[in-house]
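Board notes, transcribed. Complex of a protein with zinc ion.
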Amino acid sequence: MTDTVTIIENTAEAREDYGERYGVDEIELTAEHIAALKAGKCIASNNGEYTQFITLKTTIERMCCSYCDGTGTYELAGETVCCSYCDGCGTVPVPEEWK
Ligand SMILES: [Zn+2]
């Protein structure tokens, strides 16, 4: 199972807002770790109970929606409407032939 991974601000408030579930692990990556990820390595860590494997997703799966310029909405007859190409999320899947 792949964990849900989210980018949040590095503040106590953002951590509190994100929540703790059953507990908290603090994993601090160094520039050396980031370089290793970019080189295709896997970062492995464990807290004595669970092991975490961290990898860099190298295939871009989604790209900015060109119809709404990534805003998720566009103007239609003077009204702001949800972009139906990206369903309002601002991104669309990268075509297979572009990968
Ligand atoms: Zn769109």
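Residues 62-98 form one domain. DSSP finds two helices and six strands in the chain.
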